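User: Please run a holo structure prediction.
Assistant: Happy to. Please share the sequence and the ligand.
User: Here you go; the ligand is guanosine-5'-diphosphate.
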Amino acid sequence: TKPDDHPVQNGQSLRSPICCIMGHVDTGKTKLLDCIRGTNVQEGEAGGITQQIGATYFPAENIRERTKELKADAKLNVPGLLVIDTPGHESFTNLRSRGSGLCDLAILVVDIMHGLEPQTIESLNLLKMRNTDFIVALNKVDRLYGWKTCRNAPIGKAIRQQSKDVMNEFNRRLTEIITQFKEQGLNTELYYKNKEMGETYNIVPTSAISGEGIPDLLLLLVQWAQKTMVKRLTYSEDVQCTVLEVKVVEGHGTTIDVVLVNGVLHEGDQIVVCGMQGPVATTIRALLTPHPMRELRVKGTYLHHKEIKAAQGIKIAAQGLEHTIAGTSLYVVGPRDDVEEIKEAAMEDVNSVMSRIDKS
Ligand code: GDP
């Protein structure tokens, strides 16, 4: 392993899109994440996939390799894809970046055997509220009676192997689920039949157990992002960074886990975060990412970085972070900035975060 195998994103005009996984309990959110992470485990460091703080990073090269059977001739303009590790509502509601959703897009997991469930609808409402686009993973297709497993195959290929009976059941359930979405005011369609991308949301049938449809899901996520979100994904020096968690780590004191959505952070940068008792101005002592070698990761050793570019999940060590409020933005004080002004800006979104905490 190279000493630092984190993706170099210099010279790239787009940053990696950030994706989170939503859906009802037991639909397979966790399993799906494991599945998209694990396919290449036998190839050393999982085909360049890196474990980050709070997220998993998939380099474009890995996505290209895993989707080559789709012959999509995919031109990938983004350096990769960052998938948030904690599925569900909570991370999504906490993951904000200056008032809007931190996630660029989401995977909404629906169990093909159960259709839309209460938390699917809650997720839909959150996504609508944040104006976040999503792709439906119609999961557990392997549970259709008589399904023939085609490990990690594109869904089209897998579907061609199935019997008439399986396809009848598949189509019946699919139609029912499309109707349920319509009742929620949303048009959805199988992605390879979808001619009105944008107005009609895409459905990708998947199995998180045997991997059918996972190549399609990965490719669609990246293509969708780079096609419709160029402006949002353009790399900018303007730092956009959200605090996920506050944690005490042996040897580092209180640290914050953040997602750097855009821009670059340096060791020694002066930053402002929101604290329970008001804004805290401090200096980045260390920028940390998990060790790429599994054994060392278990022991809790981190790689130190002089600078890190977006989009990435990072741990930051600094003094005075004890009372930082998760879900708020981190600000960098530039050489020409007025610290007091930044402190005020930093406290602006605290109220909305606090009111959410009160409610829950
Ligand atoms: P979560 O609550 O949405 O994170 O759901 P989990 O990932 O924990 O999955 C719930 C259960 O469904 C577990 O027992 C999984 O093994 C199972 N499961 C998840 N995805 C699939 C799938 O694609 N096919 C089958 N047969 N079972 C699945």
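The CA atoms of residues 155 and 213 lie 4 Å apart.
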